[in-house]
Amino acid sequence: MEQCGGAGHSYHIAKKLSKKGLLIGIDRDEEALEVAKERLKEFDNIKYIHDNHDNIKEVIERLNIEKVDGILLDLGVSSYQIDEKTRGFTYMQDGPLDMRMDKTQGLTAEYIVNNYKEEDLARIIYEYGEEKFSRRIAKNICEYREKEKITKTSKLVEIIEKSIPKAHNEKQGHPAKRTFQAIRIEVNNEIKPLYNTVLNSIEALKSRGRLCIITFHSLEDRAVKQAYIEAVGKCTCPPGLPYCVCGKKTLGRVITKKPILPSDEEIKINSRSRSAKLRVFEKI
Question: Are 88 and 109 in contact (CB under 8 A)?
Fold first, then answer.
């Protein structure tokens, strides 16, 4: 039995597979892999892969595995990355403008903030952060960087706070939350490949295998839902035809008609789980 999943959720999976299966832990963050290796050192049935889950098809091929029994995708940023201020993900502590999940890649938040055109900054802040004041934030970023390069998260937070009316902040939470999310998504290219990643993951499953995906914001959840709909398939032939000619085939079924949400108890233990949604697909 082969299971794929992010390194962060590997312990419980490894324990279930300890006697009869193989767990493949894929993570683009080398530090997360090292943490997983230490946490799971009692198990010898795990392969640790430094790669992106968007490449899951290629990863499985490299391992000479035809199909897997199950896949867990835990999307977005991890608590470890948020809590480590040197990674630059959080607006709550000062740190370098980095935000790379994979520290070997070239693109950083600092580059985006200091080099993207104003219209491109406004676009990604609006599309990936759903921030209504995106144009004002982008304008103020560009005006500031003409005087001085922006290298710290605290300076970016300061610029964002000055760009958004205080009355709005009181209703919407921390003013930097949406902009930081948007820049992080752009740095790590989290949304564009996701639709195909879901379809490739379903393709990698054995019959009756399941794909479980945890999302943490609406952009991720929307891409997952759309990919699941595509995988379920639906005949597009005109109703008058005696038989199907469109060639649409179903790959399986959605197990969760509505997403599974965290319980009140789980939210008490881990407040960051509040926005989590779990959707499950089973391959035929």
Answer: yes
For the chain, give the mean pLDDT: 90
Domains of the chain: 2-79+191-283 (3.40.50.150), 81-188 (1.10.150.170)
The structure's pTM equals 0.86
What are the percentages of helix, strand and coil residues in the chain, rounded to 5? 50, 15, 35
pLDDT value at position 240?
77
Please give the Cα distance from 79 to 172 (Å, whole number). 22
Q: Looking up tokens 């900054």, which residue turns up?
A: 121
According to the model, what pLDDT value does residue 147 have? 96
Long-range contacts at 44-47 (CB < 8 A, ≥ 24 apart)? 45/14, 45/17, 45/18, 45/21, 46/10, 46/14, 46/22, 47/22, 47/23
* Dihedral sign from CA coordinates of 129, 171, 217, 49: positive
Contact in structure between 72 and 8 (CB atoms under 8 Å): no
Chain CA centroid to CA 12, Å: 21
Whether 89 contacts 156, CB under 8 Å: no
Cα–Cα distance, 203 to 249 (Å, whole number): 13
Q: At CB < 8 A and 24+ separation, what contacts does 138-147 make?
A: 139/163, 141/113, 142/118, 145/113, 145/114
| Length in residues, the chain | 284
- Give the CA dihedral 144, 150, 155, 159, nearest 10 degrees: 30
- Candidates 204, 219, 253; CA nearest to 54 is 204
Q: Give all strands (DSSP E) within 22-151, no chain letters.
A: 22-27, 46-50, 68-74
Angle between helices 10-17 and 30-39 (to 10 degrees): 40
Closest CA to 53 of 73, 23, 78, 69: 73
